[in-house]
Amino acid sequence: MELDALIAAQCGVVSRAQALPAGFTVAKIKWLVGAGRWHRLHAHTFATFTGPLPFEAQVWAAVLRAGRRAAASHRAG
Fold this sequence. Notes:
Elements (H helix, E strand, L loop, with lengths): L2 H7 L3 E3 H4 L6 H9 L4 E4 L2 E3 L7 H12 L11
Antiparallel strand pairs: 1-3, 2-3
């Protein structure tokens, strides 16, 4: 899946592990955070937008931070 489509599917949240294979470098991610374009939510987990963090984005951030075997259910909320 293309990174833009993945970010859209994950409510604007992306992990470093997803961004790196898509061509981003650690330096570019640091620049995006430093410039205020991305916001660090958890270790290696970022919001790719500004403004309030919707509940769905919070759930995605938690799932991405927790790792490969993590999941959220319909009761997450």
